[in-house]
Design a protein that fits this description.
The complex is a heterodimer of chains A (252) and B (281). With 252 residues, chain A is α/β, with parallel strands linked by helices. Chain A contains ten helices and ten strands. Chain A has a domain of 169 residues: Rossmann fold (3-Layer(aba) Sandwich), CATH 3.40.50. Classes of the chains: A alpha/beta (252), B mainly alpha (281).
């Protein structure tokens, strides 16, 4: 058994008095794809945003429990949040290119991290766009505005932008919800490449997608972690009645 | 009456209201340009007034207004923009920040003579700065702040929240997100607010009445603690306080003030459209 990359330990989380996660405990296996799935409002996105502390930006929330990244408490007092977010990249449900060119988007993070060397930046640019399966399509218009790309390309640009920081972990929050099937396929294909190097947690936009990409699967319902199992077991032999109801379409 | 005629009537009424806005502006500008052109000469712009201001030029008033506007900008822009960035991007939503916002909105509605009296009491007398460019610029700056802050805050809030989230998720500190993403996007709106505020400052009479403006001072100010003439006050003086003042000079002075304000407006529009073109999202 390899050491878990991330340990989520009895985490509960509330917006005001509304508890969206209740006592969730699970370990994330390194260099694999872990799927958080379940109906809307299950707390999946909140849990993702707790891992890279993006929910710090939201006022009026409370959290109990611990989240450990490589054994280090991410809510510990010695965590430098920008560094945490460089290690834990995130891609959002909608493609959100920043204002500016394709190049500027990819290099935004590395430049903030203090990388100034031009050949190093060029290298990062090509590597991350290649990893996101976008390089061939954009290499001749790297200085065009990012919004001139199609939706699917924009989303892969956002993936490249996260990869530019060489994170350990990649959080993907319904990354293909706004995309057509072909673009979705391209993004999913790149996941199989990426998991050689990165620990990936994805909130899929459908059960089918969950089944396609999962190495481990966690099923969330109304803030509870109902079931967590390796492989695609959950879809074929659900251990819990509620999981079965959802997977077979009786719930949701 | 048929629907057709109701519609025609509606259009006609709307057209009239539009006309009611445009015509006065054109008439005012037209009269001032027509009557004032004759007074404009190199001497009028660059010479000191003499013979009870009936002869010579308006040079000290022009320089005074430029200096006052510059001083106002130096005080109001950093405080206004900085304060707004704090309010819009950093401060949490508490009753304190809410009352600051309320204060800003209310400040915008205060008559300018009240600012003038406040400036007299606060800067000239209490802080013992004396009647001076500094006191005048500070007074004008306070009057300008609400205009700058309310437009700047709107401009900052118009930038999608997601940009802040994305910047943070890429390891950006809050300030880096503001510096590299939010401010460049909000800049056209902020510049608009700054220019609107400064234009008002350049044209106001009441706030400078007791704080800086000199009735007749045919020399340039020597320091920020010096008094100066200023165009709006000078216009007021030669229009109402000097018997037998040639109408030509009054119109000429009005024309210079108008040209100054309109050209500032033009420059602002050009700067704004330049930054708008650079904006992409």
């Amino acid at each position: 058994m390899v050491d878990p990359k991330i340990q989520i330990d009895k985490v509960s989380y509330a917006y005001g008095e509304n508890w969206v996660l209740r006592n969730v405990t699970l370990d994330i296996v390194p260099k694999s794809v872990t799927v958080f799935f379940g109906p809307a409002g299950g707390g999946k996105t909140s849990l993702l945003r707790l891992i890279n502390r993006l929910n710090d930006l939201v006022e009026g929330t409370q959290m109990t429990g611990r989240i450990l990244l490589d054994g280090q408490d991410v809510y510990g007092s010695d965590t430098y949040i920008p560094n945490l977010r460089r290690r834990v990249g995130m891609v959002f449900a909608l493609p959100l290119p920043l204002p500016g060119t394709i190049r500027e988007n990819v290099l935004y993070g590395p430049k903030l991290a203090g990388i100034r060397n031009q050949s190093r930046l060029d290298e990062i640019l090509e590597r991350s766009l290649t990893q996101a399966a976008l390089w061939e399509e954009v290499k001749d218009r790297i200085d065009h505005p990012a919004i001139s790309l199609s939706g699917g390309q924009q989303q892969r640009l956002c993936i490249a932008r996260s990869l530019a920081l060489e994170p350990d972990v990649l959080l993907l929050d319904e990354p293909t919800s706004g995309l057509d099937p072909i673009s979705t396929r391209k993004v999913e294909d790149s996941l199989f490449e990426l998991k050689q190097q990165y620990t990936i947690i994805i909130v899929p936009h459908s059960i089918q997608q969950a089944a396609r990409v999962a190495d481990q699967t966690a099923f969330f319902l109304m803030g509870d972690l109902v079931e967590y199992a390796p492989g695609k077991e959950i879809f074929t032999q659900p251990g819990d009645k509620r999981t079965e109801d959802y997977v077979t379409g009786r719930l949701g | 009456m048929s629907r057709y005629w109701v519609q025609r009537l509606g259009f006609a009424l709307l057209g009239l209201t539009a006309l009611a806005v445009v015509v006065p502006i054109l008439v005012v500008i037209g009269i001032i340009v027509f009557e004032g052109m004759g007074a404009i000469s190199w001497e009028f712009i660059t010479a000191m007034p003499f013979d009870g201001m009936k002869q010579g030029g308006i040079f000290p008033a022009l320089v005074g207004t430029l200096l006052l506007t510059l001083g106002t900008a130096l005080v109001a822009i950093p405080i206004g923009v900085g304060g707004t960035i704090y309010l819009a991007e950093y401060a949490r939503d508490t009753w304190v920040t809410r009352s600051i916002r309320l204060a800003i909105i209310n400040l915008a509605g205060i008559p300018s003579i009240v600012y003038g009296l406040f400036g007299l009491g606060m800067f000239v007398l209490f802080l013992k700065i004396g009647t001076s460019i500094l006191a005048g610029a500070l007074t004008l700056a306070i009057m300008t702040l609400p205009v700058i802050m309310s437009t700047a805050e709107e401009a900052l809030r118009a930038v999608p929240t997601e940009f802040r989230t994305v910047s943070a998720s890429l390891g950006g500190s809050r300030w880096q997100g503001i510096r590299y993403i939010i401010l460049p996007q909000a800049l056209p709106g902020i510049i608009t607010g700054v220019i609107l505020g400064l234009l008002r400052a350049a044209g106001e009479t009441a706030p400078i009445l007791f704080t800086v403006a000199a009735f007749f001072l045919p020399r340039l100010p020597q320091s920020p603690f010096d008094q100066t003439m200023a165009l709006p006050y000078h216009l007021y003086v030669i229009s109402t306080q000097v018997p037998g003042m040639p109408l030509r000079i009054q119109h000429g002075t009005a024309l210079v003030l108008l040209a100054l304000v309109l050209s500032m407006n033009l420059v602002a529009t050009i700067i704004r459209s330049y930054f708008r073109r650079k904006r992409q999202w």
